[in-house]
Specification:
The chain is an alpha/beta fold. It contains seven helices and seven strands, in the order H-E-H-E-H-H-E-H-E-E-E-H-E-H. The protein has a seven-stranded parallel β-sheet, with helices on both faces. The radius of gyration is 16 Å and the shape is globular.
Length: 177
C-alpha cells in the first residue's frame, strides 16, 4: 500500500469545480466567530460540491489570512455571499424555494441518521455560533432541525466538525460526486 500522489487524486481545477453539478446543499453560517472554522467549512463545502456558503453577522469573509490557512484555496472554488443578518439570508432562501435545515439541538430536532433529503429539493444547512448555536430567530424560521446523535458528556461538536459530519452523511444519501 502507498499514498497516492496529488496527480493521482484527479482533483478538479477551480474552473472544473465551478462548472460541475453541485449538491442540493447551500451552507449558512450564523455568526461563526472562528476564522479557522470558517476556512475549514469552506474546505468541506469544496469537498462535497456545495453550491455556496453564505456568511452572516459576525462571520468574517475572505480574503483573510486566517481563513485561508484552513481553507487552502477553497474560498476561490466555492461561491460565497455576505449578509448582515442570518435571518434575512434565510428569508431570501425560503423565497427561492430552499428548505431550511438548522443543525441544532431542539425539542423537535430529528437525529441526523433519520433525516432523508427529498430528491429534487434544495436545502440550506444552517450552522451557528460556536457557543450560542443557531440564533433563536433563525430557529424560528427553520423548516426542520437536525442534530448529530452524541453519547458522551459534552453533547456538542466544533462547528467545522459538525459541518463535515453533516455533509458526509448527506452526501451518501444524495449520491454527490
Amino acid at each position: 500500500m502507498r499514498k497516492l500522489t496529488n496527480e493521482e487524486l484527479n482533483r478538479k481545477s477551480i474552473q472544473e469545480f465551478k462548472s460541475s453539478g453541485k449538491s442540493p446543499f447551500l451552507i449558512v453560517l450564523d455568526n461563526v466567530r472562528s476564522l479557522n472554522n470558517i476556512g475549514s467549512i469552506f474546505r468541506s463545502a469544496d469537498a462535497f460540491l456545495v453550491e455556496a456558503v453564505w456568511l452572516c453577522g459576525i462571520t468574517a469573509t475572505p480574503p483573510h489570512r486566517e481563513i485561508q490557512k484552513s481553507a487552502l484555496g477553497a474560498t476561490e472554488s466555492v461561491d460565497w455571499k455576505y449578509y448582515e443578518s442570518a435571518a434575512g439570508a434565510v428569508r431570501e432562501l425560503k423565497e427561492k424555494g430552499y428548505t431550511i435545515v438548522s443543525v441544532e439541538q431542539t425539542d423537535g430536532s430529528v437525529p441526523l441518521d433519520r433525516f432523508i433529503p427529498d430528491p429534487g429539493r434544495k436545502y440550506a444547512l444552517v450552522f451557528g455560533h460556536e457557543i450560542k448555536g443557531v440564533s433563536d430567530e433563525v430557529v424560528g424560521l427553520t423548516d426542520l432541525c437536525v442534530e448529530i446523535p452524541q453519547y458522551g458528556t459534552k453533547h456538542s461538536f466544533n462547528v467545522a466538525v459538525s459541518a463535515g459530519i453533516v455533509l458526509w452523511e448527506l452526501a451518501g444519501r444524495t449520491r454527490i460526486g
